[in-house]
Amino acid sequence: MKATEVPQIAGAYLFEPTPYADERGFFCRTFDADVVRSVGLDPDAFVQDSLSRSVRGVLRGLHLRSGAGEAKLVRCSYGRIFDVVVDLRADSPTYLGRAFFELSGDTQLTLYIPAGCAHGFQALTETADTSYRIDRPHDPAEDVTIAFDDPELAIPWPLAATSMSQRDREAPSLAEVLKHKES
């Protein structure tokens, strides 16, 4: 497994496993504490694992947490997703930077997203399973959502959004979230 920095988002990494394929399919390690540690992250910091299943066109996000934020490892374990990260850390050298990825069950790439970054994704296949590993227990009172179609972000979502939560449909603009964050 190798780790590669994401230039658009300071402190973000892609972890690329080495699959072993044969006539049965493939096997690969999707988490390696030594590789995570090698880029300065604490592998023991992750306290919860979650899984979402989405159908083609479902859009989830853009989400982040207030307070101390939430760092996470994200991987598409089955299917394909278009994944988005937006750096909202005012003190970051990549503040307001955006990065887009295609994560898939074929590659098993894992994306590390630092606390203070917004995250969202869209399912590109009929079924897409997305795994999350987060570094703090989830507290719904700290949930923050930003409009997926905010023109300031101009995210090039590949498909029309076929379904999303009410919270995501009614999310405020980036400017509104930043204004609230500063007050």
From TrEMBL:
Record keyword Isomerase present: yes
Record keywords: Isomerase
EC number(s) recorded for this UniProt protein: 5.1.3.13
One Pfam assignment: dTDP_sugar_isom
Family according to the record: Belongs to the dTDP-4-dehydrorhamnose 3,5-epimerase family.
MF terms (GO), sorted A to Z: dTDP-4-dehydrorhamnose 3,5-epimerase activity
Protein's recorded name: dTDP-4-dehydrorhamnose 3,5-epimerase
Region (Disordered): 164-183
Stretches with biased composition (Basic and acidic residues): 166-183
InterPro entries referenced in this protein's UniProt entry, alphabetically: RmlC-like (IPR000888), RmlC-like_jellyroll (IPR014710), RmlC_Cupin_sf (IPR011051)
Keyword Isomerase: yes
Source species, domain of life: Bacteria
